[in-house]
Amino acid sequence: MFADFLRRLTAPATDPLSGDDARLALTALLVRIARADEDYAQAEIDRIDRITARRYGLSPFEAARLRSDAETLEAEAPDTVKFTNAIKTAIPYEQRLAVIESLWELALADGQRDDAEDALLRTVTRFLGISDMDSALARQRIEQAT
């Protein structure tokens, strides 16, 4: 189902993604972070739905559908390095920075930092071309908001 999308995303000369495709790719990244600790809990699923509903102005039904599609895409997506590098090429910096905030919101949703999630988040941040400082500031904003 997503083979053509993944082929376009990982093509050498990737064009910027359309709004819908960018939402799908970034939501798949949220799913990848949530699955990093091999405990894809209902609380994380609910948080992904809330994040996408808020960020993209979706109804709860639309957010759940986007997440479901993103779960399928994430399972079919290449390794994290290729996947995030493709997103970096196809999505503007501001959108990537906003998703780092969402990734921290998701990673911190259970009130504790998990080593596997932290490690993957650091990797994703680097491969998305986000500076460590910007990532740390995003994490601090999320910690202060909760």
UniProtKB/TrEMBL annotation:
Source species, domain of life: Bacteria
Gene3D superfamilies (UniProt xref): TerB-like
Organism of derivation: Donghicola tyrosinivorans
Pfam families: TerB (PF05099)
Protein name from the UniProt record: Putative tellurite resistance protein B-like protein
Domain Co-chaperone DjlA N-terminal: 23-140
